Amino acid sequence: MKNSISLILILNLYFPYFSQSPVSWETQYNKEENKIIFDAIIGKGWHLYAVNVPVPNEGPLPTIFEFHSNSSYSIRGEIQQEKPKIKFDKGFGVKIAYYENKARFVQQINTNLDSAKVSGEIKYMTCNEEKCLPFNYKFLVKINHQN
Hints:
10 strands; mainly beta
């Protein structure tokens, strides 16, 4: 009995690493405006939390975009987010900023070469009425100004 309880605890701790994320990501590069667009498609009943949240040190984890350093590009400014829904959440006990169904984030960049590879990771939490799961999504955007 003790071993089965330990196994259940271990599986619950590591469940997010074995589960499919309810959020799928699409990335694209807008050549005319020199920006990378991140579109999140959010599963029914799930929330994705904003980059800028009302109470950053309490409540759900905000969405974080990390870009790997590379001499072929540089980041301009902060990542921009669509206006999220904001409400007081009883479960977290604070105001939260979140998206349902879809969300768009945009990062301006400067490219230093005719072609570049912009890579990084999106760290995010997604919740439904029953649970919250943390995920990491690795991205790679290939830029070619010669085409």
